[in-house]
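User: Predict the structure for this protein chain, please.
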Amino acid sequence: MESLIMEHMANRTEIDMTRKMAVITGASSGIGMELARLFAADGYDLIVTARRAERLQLLSDELRKAHGISVHIIQMDIAQPFAAATLWQDINNITSDIDVLVNNAGFGDSGNFAEEQPENIERMIHLNISTLTSLTRNVLPGMIARKRGNILNVSSLAGFQPGGPGMSVYYATKSYVLSFSRGIRSELHGTGVSVTVLCPGPTRTEFEGKAKAENTRLFHLHLSPPMDARVVALAGYQGMRHGCGIVTPGLLNKFLAISMRLAPPSIALKINHFILTDRG
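Assistant: Here is the predicted structure, written as structure tokens:
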């Protein structure tokens, strides 16, 4: 697998070890880009990765100029099989001292499962589950040895659901992220390493277009208009800093997350089938 690494140093030729380092996947747009801005504003050096190098370059220029930090760009499609191993090697070529890992990159698709493209299913599983899991496994030993570190995994309000007819694979992968994050957070108690999972509801990003969900009722409910990506990112960032286990931005989304646990799965599935249906 080919990858392209570009280092942009703010008048330095090596990493400033007095700064903290954050790795952010899917940083070229949406929640990932807004998280990069928040970390940079707090003085973190960054390693950012996405497929679109030009987007990362613009973000790098913006953050270096505004905050005087170092930004390392890794251009890579991490939805490919075993991408995490290549990405981890590229990260280690920059530094092995990672303070924060943000697993933000995700991929969604909508439509009946039997009609989905097999390659889209594979990409979704690799990106949303396999790469996230492998990166987390790779970064944890160093964090545990240093007795410090934070992991922020981006799931979804969908993670609380029993299933999502019309987006079945996506909902299942986000349930995995939520369950996985809860489990390792418990395992890491007392180590100095914290795990936070961000579970936003509908958010104004490029996701709805890529997932072909922009015409579903989910993104047009008057009771739950899509949230701004910066608001969602800020909630996740502050939750991580305060050591929260689960962050669900928005009062209505919090209520929905709780009610989903109480509703019979058969009813929840019928509701999901309705809201994930094309409006026509």
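Residues 4-275 form a domain with the Rossmann fold fold (CATH 3.40.50.720).
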